[in-house]
């Protein structure tokens, strides 16, 4: 029995892999909301969070790499209380509760 042909023939669009980068996201469906998060109403570019690329709402800076952080990405070290980003903070799940450790305190924990 021969293989059945495609019922859509030439009307079906090609299914190719598409690379979606920052340019495509800023022009896409949520372009207005995305631009409001990155740009101030005055049109001046605000500082973006190094972890999630949202606009920074405060003056929180990672104590290890000194990158700007928004309120949702701030992690406080369990050992010394310093602020760290998601890249520099190490989450220790060995206890009952998760502990965030900065790179300095993580060296002494192991």
Described by strand count, sense and barrel closure, the largest sheet is: 2 strands, antiparallel
Cα-to-Cα separation, first versus last residue: 65 Å
Class from secondary-structure proportions: alpha+beta
Shape: elongated
Contiguous runs where pLDDT drops below 50 for at least 5 residues: none
Number of helices in the DSSP assignment = 3
**How much helicity do the residues have?**
10-25%
The total of beta strands comes to 4
Elements, N to C (H/E): HHEEEEH
Major sheet: order of its strands?
Answer: 1-2
Percent strand equals 5-15%
Q: Which radius of gyration do the C-alpha atoms yield?
A: 22 Å
Average pLDDT confidence is 76
Structure description:
GO terms for molecular function: CD27 receptor binding. It comes from Colobus angolensis palliatus (Peters' Angolan colobus). This is Apoptosis regulatory protein Siva. The protein has helices at 22-27, 31-38, 103-109; strands at residues 75-76, 83-84, 90-92, 99-101. The chain is an alpha+beta fold. It has a domain at 60-107. It has a two-stranded antiparallel sheet. It has a two-stranded antiparallel ribbon with strand order 3-4. It is elongated. The relative contact order is 0.11.
